Amino acid sequence: MQFYQRCLGGKLTLQTVGESPLADQLPAPMKDSILHATLTKQALVLMGSDMVNDTGLIKGNTVSLLLNCSSETEIRNIYNLLAEGGQATHPLENSFWGALFGDLTDRYGNQWLLHFDKNETAKSD
Asked: What's 69-121 look like in SS3?
């Protein structure tokens, strides 16, 4: 989450299991696990947790996160930051629907779709 804060900006708050009302109900090794992580920047709220079941973490392609950016500068900066240590699978390019669009897999194996609708900017001018 600190990596995503560096890429996206915003305020990050973390709550461990040990800091929560669940602390006495769970095994001691879990007390350092993050129960709630919240990254907030204006209307953006990204939440996460590192609590997983006994099978552990299984990475895959079952989820893609779409981030709708508010400017061309923002999408280019975020794309470059998220791609550090990952794989830029689809570089940013102008799409047929009038948006700047691209995707990548970050250093943690998470898939991101980044989108900036140039048409929305033209409507607000």
From this structure: CCCHHHHHHHHHHHHCCCEEEEEEEECCCCEEEEEEECCCCCEEEEEEEHHHH
Q: Are 112 and 65 in contact (CB under 8 A)?
A: yes
User: Which pLDDT tens digit goes with each residue over 28-61?
Assistant: 888 888 888 999 999 889 988 887 666 776 666 6
Both structure tokens of 105:
């897999």
Taking only the tens place, the pLDDT of each residue in 68-98 is 999 999 999 999 999 999 999 999 999 988 9
Q: What is the 3-state secondary structure (H, E, C) of 6-59?
A: HHHCCEEEEEEHHHCCCHHHCCHHHHHCEEEEEEEECCEEEEECCCCCCCCCCC
Alpha-carbon distance values, 54 to 36, 42, 57, 70, 109 (Å): 19, 36, 9, 40, 20
